[in-house]
From TrEMBL:
This is Permease of the major facilitator superfamily. The chain crosses the membrane at residues 38-64, 76-94, 106-125, 131-152, 164-186, 192-214, 245-265, 271-298, 319-340, 360-378, 385-404, 416-438, 459-477, 523-541. Pfam families: MFS_1. InterPro entries: MFS (IPR011701), MFS_dom (IPR020846), MFS_trans_sf (IPR036259). Residues 41-513 form the Major facilitator superfamily (MFS) profile domain. PANTHER family: MAJOR FACILITATOR SUPERFAMILY, MULTIDRUG TRANSPORTER, PUTATIVE (AFU_ORTHOLOGUE AFUA_6G03040)-RELATED. It is found in: Membrane. Keywords: Membrane, Transmembrane, Transmembrane helix. It is a multi-pass membrane protein.
Length: 551
């Protein structure tokens, strides 16, 4: 199907790659659960999805408390980055594992990993231990996220797809909204360790529900022949997985991302940008990016029996590439805002963690409203996606750049909340636009891969945003504060923001003003990537613009 033709939901194929009018679906989709088991299954899936959705934002308002307690504020962003890095790299890998070991088995394994390493994070005695546990928590979280979203769709008949998708989106939005507030409250009123430990009983409860309620062959009918039913025995399944999974592609992508983030993280902090280590990391990252693209092109052209991480035919779809770029460019401003703005309230405005979480609700509450607004505009009113995306970009740019100007002050003005509302509405709208577009602009057999690619790009944009923002912060603080403080004092501030309290009130004011300028630059970075979303709109723009027509 040409990406330049008029495309609607009624013209597209089902997720199994066959026409909606045919009766020869390879997998029966009548809904795996009915009655009371359906509600129990939805509860288990919803709880698991909520835990992964809340994980990024719940840490943002408690990050300062965590790193100060462990005396290593300078590496604070790695608490976020380590999770996002593995989370990004394993999203598509878990979907391939589910093809061979069945979705239920894969979901239970990933949920077990997420829950177990959440306990490890809560028991960490150093920041290094916490970062390692966060990385493994991200591996499990990736599987929970991708497999629960897919499972939500399959527990109901296809005709209820829109309803259940809204439920899943609402759960994720709820996690985004409650994360900063819960994280701040736990960090202030109790031990920060409960930010992670609370996942253990909730994850265990969800695991037991899913173990009992989901059918063994979920989400397929017992008579359906799937990849997992073709291969008997654990040994054959392992062999089949390594034969058909795009292991080289996954490793190349993960390696390229890891070295790029490491270079951004350590540049101008532990090492100079001109140092051999940083340069070598950037070169290695570039080599693996090229290797990844060449490998994906090779296996697609040779038609090898491998589940490609990125089917090369998608590279010729201009509309999809525009939407994929939109995923990436929305990931950075959303992640930077979620992580850095609560930190700013704590350090610059001397807010407590819970107070910072409450103030951040101006952004967090408006973002899901933007998601729902996009659904109404594109679904009920049938407005083309590109027009809605333009509206979201305008709101983001106006809100973020106006907030960055008011952020120069150490005082909090009422206008800042209004600007955060605008930015949240715009971010939610743009995120929803590109997410909803992807299934409409690719063939049915590519819908899952295309969505996973977009999600990985959005997470990669977020990881890069955190690393770049941290580099901006450290670089500016070293430059600005070296005039009034000696190098040891600057290093002390970078290791723990609590060190601000040891200085005189006059020096404290200068330090908070320096932090304010640095955080303002971070918000401007987010605003710049919001402007870059215009390129995505240009790529998806055509004579007959893509719109959604509900059948």
């Amino acid at each position: 199907m040409s990406p330049d033709s008029e495309m609607t939901m009624s013209e597209k194929q089902t997720p199994e790659g066959v026409s909606e009018t045919t009766s020869e679906d390879p997998i029966e989709w009548d809904g795996a659960l009915h009655g009371f088991p359906l509600y129990l299954g939805a509860l288990g899936l919803g709880l698991a999805l909520f835990l992964t959705g809340i994980e990024a934002t719940i840490v943002s308002t408690s990050l300062v408390t965590i790193t100060n307690d462990l005396d290593d504020f300078g590496r604070s962003s790695w608490v976020i980055t380590s999770y996002l890095l593995t989370y990004t790299g394993f999203l598509m890998i878990w979907s391939k594992i589910g093809d061979i070991w069945r979705v239920k088995t894969s979901l239970l394994v990933s949920l077990f990993m997420f829950t177990a390493f959440s306990g490890g994070c809560g028991g960490a005695q150093s920041l290094s231990q916490l970062i390692i546990c966060r990385a493994f928590q991200g591996v499990g979280g990736a599987g929970v996220y991708s497999l629960t979203l897919y499972s939500f769709v399959r527990i109901v008949p296809y005709r209820q797809y829109d309803t259940i998708s809204s439920v899943a989106g609402g759960i994720l939005s709820l996690g985004l909204v409650l994360g900063p507030l819960i994280g701040g409250a736990v960090a202030e009123k109790g031990s920060w360790r409960w930010v992670f430990l609370c996942n253990v009983p909730a994850g265990a409860f969800s695991w037991v529900l899913l173990l009992i309620v989901l059918p063994a062959n979920f989400p397929n009918a017992p008579s359906a022949q799937t990849a997992s039913s073709k291969y008997k025995g654990a040994g054959m399944k392992i062999k089949t997985f390594f034969q058909r999974a795009d292991t080289l592609g996954a490793l190349a992508l993960l390696t390229a991302s890891s070295f790029a983030i490491a270079a951004l993280q350590e540049g101008n902090f532990e090492y100079a940008w001109s140092s051999g280590l940083v340069i070598s990391f950037l070169v290695i990252s570039g080599i693996f990016w090229i290797a990844f693209l060449l490998w994906e092109w090779f296996i697609s052209k040779k038609d090898l029996d491998i589940y490609a991480m990125f089917p090369w035919r998608l590279a010729g779809n201009r509309i999809f590439l525009g939407a994929a770029l939109g995923f990436f460019t929305t990931g950075l401003p959303m992640t930077v805002s979620i992580i850095m703005i609560p930190q700013r309230f704590q350090i610059v405005n001397s807010c407590s963690p819970i107070d910072a979480g409450v103030r951040f609700l101006a952004y967090a509450l408006s973002s899901p409203v933007g998601i729902m607004t996009c659904s109404v505009l594109t679904g009920r009113l049938k407005i083309p996606f590109c027009y809605v995306a333009l509206g979201g970009i305008v709101l983001q740019v106006v809100g973020l750049f106006l907030f960055s100007e008011t952020a120069f002050s150490t005082d909090i003005s009422a206008a800042q909340y209004g600007y955060l509302v605008l930015a949240g509405l715009g971010t939610g709208t743009s995120v929803a636009v590109f997410y909803m577009m992807v299934p409409l602009v690719v063939d049915g057999k590519d819908q899952s891969i295309a969505l996973s690619t977009g999600l990985q790009l959005r997470m990669l944009g977020g990881v890069l945003g955190v690393a770049a923002s941290t580099t901006i912060l450290h670089n500016y603080l070293r430059s600005r504060l070296s005039v009034t403080l000696d190098p040891d004092q600057v290093s002390l501030l970078l290791s723990s923001s609590d060190a601000i309290g040891i200085f005189s009130p006059y020096i404290q004011l200068q330090i908070r003003q320096a932090y304010s300028v640095a955080y303002s630059a971070q918000v401007k970075l987010a605003g710049g990537f919001s402007v870059a979303q215009l390129l995505s709109v240009a790529m998806i723009w055509k004579r007959s613009n893509v719109r959604y027509l509900k059948r």
